[in-house]
Each structure stands twice: as structure tokens, then as C-alpha cells.
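Rotation project, supervised by the postdoc (A.L.). Task for the rotation student: set up a whole-complex structure prediction and record inputs and outputs verbatim in this book. Inputs entered:
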Amino acid sequence: MPGPCLDLRAVAMRYGSGAGAVEALASIDLAIEENEFVTIVGPSGCGKSTLLYLVGGFLLPTSGSILLGGKPVTGPGPDRGIVFQRYSLFPWLSVRGNIAYGLDEKGTRRAERDRIVEELVRLVHLEGFEDRYPRELSGGMQQRVALAQTLACQPRILLMDEPFGALDAQTRRILQDELRRIWRRDTKTVLFVTHDVEEAVALGNRIVVMAARPGRVKEVFNRDFAVPEGGEFDANPAFTALKLRIWRSVKEEVEAARA
Amino acid sequence: MPSHTDRAVLLAALNRAVPVALILVVWEAVTRTGWVNPYVFPPVTEILLRWVGVLFDGTVYPPLWDTLWRSLAGLAAAIAVGVPLGLMMGRVRWAEWFFEPLFSFGFPMPKIALIPLYVHWFGLFHLSKVMLIFTDCLFPIVLFTYHGARGVSPIYLWSAQSRGTGRVRMLWRVVLPLSLASIYDGVQVAVVVAVLVAVVSEMVSGGGGLGQLMIRAYRYGDVNTAFAALLTISLLGFVLYKAAQWLRERLLFWHVGEA
Amino acid sequence: MTARLALGLSRLMPLALLLAAWHAASSAGLLQRRVLPPFIDVMAALGGLIGSGEIVPHTLASLARAGTGFLVALVLGITLGLLMARIRVVERFVEPILLLVYPVPKPALIPLFMIWLGIGDFSKITVIALACLVPVVIASFNGARGVDEMLLWSARARGTSERALLWRVVLPAALPQIAAGVRTAIAVSIIVLVSSEFISSEAGLGYLIFSYGGVGADDAMLAVVIYLAMLGYLLDRLYVGLLRRFMAWHAFAH
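Outputs recorded:
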């Protein structure tokens, strides 16, 4: 029985030293299995993004270990793809160029590369926009390209840092649905950070609630029921109940932080 | 059928031409009345006649060519050396530590003062001029590139890293395009500097070129030719600057925001 | 205080390293005397020039020329720029002229001005003034243009006359941008100064460089070049320092 896909053991992150040190994360233990979609919610300052960056290898923890498929994480790499909220695309490359970026870095042959790019363009419903540049695309479209760009590298785990946070509510719903559809088709392991509880429940089959000061895992919820296609979950009582439970948990932390 | 905006542009251009035309008319009138010594201040028409004359009899082309290619050669060398150097300074610690103070200290120093030294080292003809232009253009290019590279958002770099880009490739694959706007600002400054340095060094140390043509004309009392040379120099500077601007639009078409 | 000192010293290190390399190369015989004289010889020459006071009249001559031209351009340029920004007619008239003057390398005008105004200081000062005028006018114009209209409205509402408005409100608001243009003008003044002294003069730092270079007195020539570089650096630093003191009320990013 292979171990978890992603294993965080006693991961802590401290900034500064001595009296003025800030403990961004205090001993996080988290195990994520293959093909799980895990969402992380919490008040601002709880370190959820920091956690993501640690997994991504952009930051190094002050203590603890992060193992991906049993191997320790020492730096960034294509096995951990990341989609950021902003500045997610390279402005000087077209949609095609952006998606092909990781493939070019790998040295993929032209024909193969073009095939993959084509496939991904279709996957994110951007046919006809292949030669457009980021400045010509709407926020929602840009994030689709960012997702395609990340998927092109076939990462072991997909990291997403509030990717829909800068978009309007409508576009957000549409993209959540798209993401769910894509995940169902090519199941992957996903670690998704958000401050939106509804989004967390709609997407994740496991929802991690974090607390702030210091950042730590407070509670973990499981979504045992399926979310209907098309995202019509407002009328679903199980959904609303879970959402309420999680919201209460998060609210406690928000209020505690304010105190 | 000229559009409304075409007419507006034409009107604006005509508007601008009026004060210039006015000055030219006054100039012509004053010089014709004999108040001013025509030897010292020739009438506009004489100058233009002489200018057209040198264009046709070919006197102006060898010196024009000299000044032009020296400026471009020096500029090209400055870009070839300055851009990689500036990029390195922007992202590599030790490069910044070593070079930034050197360029900061050197900036306020008039590199023109090195003309006698460069003549001593490189002779009176092309090489000393090109080396001087290279030295003078290096500063704005390095400094603008450096600032551009420093200002690159780390999110882009993280994105690139998680798509498999190594440290060295990062510089020219990611940092360079993102700094291009700033680099180009430096190039535009450098273009003006290049012509200026070319002309001054030709005026001071001879060796062909429009600067020498102009000084010789003055020495032989041929004021009309001197003015014609001056006019050619100004046009050269103007054309190169406009060419640089035109090229900018083609290179930076993808750029968003403060270009 | 010590942190700043440490930073300052650390920034001097690369320069010190280069000078050390120069010295080492000369001592080792790798660098021939006729290509580049040893650093100590150059420093000795500099010491001699300063100690004997020989450099003083030349420094004064150069500074006087550059300074006068610069100051004239400062006063004229700011006034012109501000007027251009607030009075349409002035802008319409001056802008095309500026556009014409801009691509002309000002040192190229030196022989012309010498014919018009004689070979003395006056011609040089005029060219320097003209060269410095461009960055100052452009900066003043842009600065004045960028002034928040609300500031002007509230001043007018308080009874400020149009004239007073210019000096009391527009000028202070435009100062940061003007300050940047002035800094460029300082550098420009030195460049045009040296160019003009190369072309023709009998005194001044540029003249010294040119004449020493002409007779092959390389160590003296380099000594003056270094002296000039230090002077340029000091003037720039002095300007920035003055700016910081008098413009503490403006958020500055230098």
C-alpha cells in the first residue's frame, strides 16, 4: 500500500528570530492521498498561502518535512504545478505559447507539443483564441490558460492559490464548474486554497479549516455527497448544512483573530 | 475619403508647423535686410539650397555614413554587453554587489572627457569613436535594464520555476521579456547619446563623420555647409529616435500597463 | 548610523578592487606605461596639481561657466515650463521649437555660437544654458501639467490671483518632477562644458585634459579626469542631499 501522495510532517514556518519572531505556521501535519481534491479555507493570516508555497518549494520550512510521493521537496519543479491568482500568464507569449511553455522547457518534440497544446485548448474551451495575447483576454480566460499551462507539465499535484479570487462571482461559478469537470475527467491530486467557504465545499472532497496566529490545522471535514453537475447546489440541503458547519468553524477563527 | 481623425491629425500637425514657419520667415527676412552679417547668419533659403546641393553632389554621404554606422555599432555593442550585464545585476547577488556601485559612480562623470584617452588607445578613426559611444551608451542601458530586472514580480519567476525553468534560462526566457519595456527606455536614451557622442568626438578629434565636416566648414568660412551639416546631424538624431519609437511599438505590442 | 556607514564602505569595495587590480597590473609589468600609467603616478600627479593650487583656477573657470549656464537655464526653464503648462498660447508656440531643438546635439552648436558670440566664455555659457534648458522646461511642463486641479480650485476659491497661483500653488506641486529634470540638467551642463572646452578654450578642466593629452602627459591627464569624475559625483550627491533636506514634505523615491 503506497504512502500518501503528499505528506506534511510537523511543518513549521517562522520569520525572524528571538522576541520579534513571527510564527506563520506551527507544526502542520497533513496527508493527502492520490487523486484527492483538498481545499484549504481560513481567515486571512492563517498561513494557507504560505503552506501552498511551502509545498510548491518556493519557500523552505524552518522545521518539519514535506514529502511528495515519498521524496522530500527541496525546491520548485514541474511535479508541483501552481496556478496563481494574478500574474499567472507570461504576457509576451500567446495562449499557445503560454500553454507550450513547460513543454518547451522539457524539450518536447514539436509535433507532440502541438498536439498536447491543442488538446488542452479544447479542454479549457478556448478554441479560436490560440493566437491571442493575455492582454486581449478576460480574467476568466486568463485563468483558464493558466490552468492549461500548468496541466501541460503533467504535475503530480496541482496547487491553486485562490485562482478565482480576482474574478467576478459569475465567472467564478463557471470556472469552478469547469475545474470540477476537468478534474472528473483526468483525476488529479489538487490542493486548493481559498477564503470562500462555498467554493471550498463545492470543489473539495476534503476541506481543511485553518486557524491563525499561529497558523495551524483546526478541523478537517469530509464531503461525503456528490456535487451535482452544473453546480446547482443552493437547493441541496446536505451542501448547505456542511457549508454552515464549516462557515461557523471559520467564523470562530475570524472572531478570535479580531479579539 | 479622409476620416475625422485623419483630419484632426493633419490640423494638429499644421498647428505645430505655424510657430516654426513663423520663425523661419522672420529669420529669412532679418538676414535679407542686411542687419545681420550673412557670413555669420546666412538666410534660411541659402542654407536649404546648400543642403540640397550637398545631398545631390554627394559630399554629405561619406560623413553621414561614418557617423551613422559608428553610432549604431557603438549602440549595438552597448546593448549586447549591457543587457546581459543589467539582467545579471538585477537577479544575481554578487553581480549587483560588484557592478551597481561602479555604474552609479560612473554615471555623473562626463565620459566625453575620455576622448583624448581613447584616441591614445584606439587611434583617430572609427575604433576610438565606436569605443567611446559604446562606453557612453553602456550606462543608461545597464541602469535601465538593471531597474527593469529588479522590478520583475517574483510570481512570474515562481511560475516559471514550477514549469521547469532553470536559473540561467530564467534570465533570458523570463526576466528579459518582462524587463523589455524598461530596457527599451534605456535604448531610446542611448540612441540620442550615441549620435551626440559620435558628433562631438568627430568635432574634437576628426577622423571623418558629420562632426568633422561641420568643423571643417566653419574653419574654411563655409558657413552654409556648416549649417547644412548641422541640419543633417539633427535629422539623423531625429530619424533614429523615431525609428526606435516605431520599433518599440512592434516589439512591445503585448505589453500591458505603464509601457 | 553604522549601518549606513557599512553600506557606504561596501559600495566602495568594487571600485577599490578595480584600483587594486590596476595597481597590481602596473607593478607586475602587465600594463605598459604608455598604455596606462600606474595608479600611484596618477595619484601623485593629482596630488601635485591640487597641492600646488594649479587646478584651482581651472576648476573655478569650469564651474563658473557651467554654473552660470545652468542657473540661467534653471530660472528661464522653470518659468517657461510653468507658463507653457498654464497658458495655451505659450505652449503652442514653444512646443514645436522645443521639438526642433531637442534632436540637435548641443555641443554641435558650439562653433556656431562662437562665431556669433565670440570665442570667450559667453558663447560657452549660452550653449550650456540652451542644453540645460531642454530637460528643465520639459520637466517643469510635465510637473505643472500634472498638478491636481482640485488644488487650484480651492486656491482660487480662497482668492488667489492667477499670477500668484502659478508661484504659490503650481510651482511647489510640480517640484518633484522639476527636481528630477534639474538633476539631468546638472549632468548635461558638465558634458556640454567639457565638450566646449575641448573644442576651444585656454582655461578649465576640459582644456587641461585636452592639452595634457595632446603632449602625452598621460598621468596628469588621467589625474584631471579622475578629479572631474569626483567633482561630478560630488555635485550630484550634493544636489540630492539638498533636495532631501528641503523637500522632506514630498514623498521621495530616489
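Student's summary: Chain C touches chain B through 53 residues (CB under 8 Å).
Supervisor addendum: Chain C has a mean pLDDT of 87.
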